[in-house]
């Protein structure tokens, strides 16, 4: 089986050498070159033709964001960003994901954590190398939609829960701003992120949306027309009953197991189904794995409404696929159609 060809872009010679060595030791990668900044990367990518690129965010002469934007216009290649674990780094990472990066890993604050970072990077590089770049560079424009004069069914949806992972930030940047200013339900977004990055997502969406968007805090009310982003690293559930529901955040009772997430889309959707019954809607977007599939099924069991993103518009058709296999999706739709589907199913 052919090895995955990688170009490493970082201004630190130490980081370039360490990542190169640790990736090649895994046996599945061939580091075909390195670059010290975005300018060098743009020169070397057409010559070396890598399958995937790792791109540092902060570099002299041309930073990772500027290089990424130019790369996506001129010579699209899957890119995984390396981000500093700071708020400024998180903000730049959210921008990079909107510009077309497939995913990112956070740089460790301690040298002892570099091995784990490279292990995470290897997983994401393997996924990124398989991504069809037309899904990253040809993102459909989702028009803003208006709420129908009458609901399509009797009853009322009080809560919309949207879950996503790989490819999710960019999908959310197109879906959530399409919701109208008079959207009648509360919205909770559950995006798989390392700790420290969900706040930046909330602020980015807040600048683009007509709805109010905030980073959820423990004990706050779940209100109509308000979008809450679930904090990375925290377990998120609901307390109360419809009309007086609040957010319950905790650090969890046990460490997160391999392949699991905190917050978990399954946990949030299951708690929503128990709290709201048939007054909840679940939407599952692009992402690797199966988180959210069981939660969507729990929503469907209480006669709530459910939507899964279709394969043609997913960066990774994992989570929605698993939900569809369980029979948990009432509707399977391409990303551009999901905002209108949400409004029609309220």
Automatic annotation (TrEMBL):
Gene3D superfamilies (alphabetical): 3.40.50.2300, Methylesterase CheB, C-terminal domain
CDD domains noted in UniProt: CheB_Rec (cd16432), REC_CheB-like (cd17541)
PROSITE patterns for this protein: CHEB (PS50122), RESPONSE_REGULATORY (PS50110)
Catalytically driven reaction(s): [protein]-L-glutamate 5-O-methyl ester + H2O = L-glutamyl-[protein] + methanol + H(+); L-glutaminyl-[protein] + H2O = L-glutamyl-[protein] + NH4(+)
SMART domains for this protein: REC
Domain CheB-type methylesterase: residue ranges: 148-346
Entry annotation: catalytic residues: 165, 192, 291
Keywords annotated in UniProt: Chemotaxis, Cytoplasm, Hydrolase, Phosphoprotein
GO cellular component annotations of the record: cytoplasm
EC number: 3.1.1.61, 3.5.1.44
Localisation per UniProt entry: Cytoplasm
InterPro entries noted in UniProt: CheB-like (IPR008248), CheB_C (IPR035909), CheY-like_superfamily (IPR011006), Sig_transdc_resp-reg_Me-estase (IPR000673), Sig_transdc_resp-reg_receiver (IPR001789)
GO biological process: chemotaxis
Broad class of where this protein is predominantly found: cytoplasm
Residue numbers carrying 4-aspartylphosphate: 56
Job of this protein: May play the central regulatory role in sporulation. It may be an element of the effector pathway responsible for the activation of sporulation genes in response to nutritional stress. Spo0A may act in concert with spo0H (a sigma factor) to control the expression of some genes that are critical to the sporulation process.
PANTHER family recorded: PROTEIN-GLUTAMATE METHYLESTERASE/PROTEIN-GLUTAMINE GLUTAMINASE (PTHR42872), PROTEIN-GLUTAMATE METHYLESTERASE_PROTEIN-GLUTAMINE GLUTAMINASE (PTHR42872:SF6)
This protein's domain notes: Contains a C-terminal catalytic domain, and an N-terminal region which modulates catalytic activity.
This protein's name: Protein-glutamate methylesterase/protein-glutamine glutaminase
Source organism: Desulfofarcimen acetoxidans (strain ATCC 49208 / DSM 771 / KCTC 5769 / VKM B-1644 / 5575) (Desulfotomaculum acetoxidans)
Gene: cheB
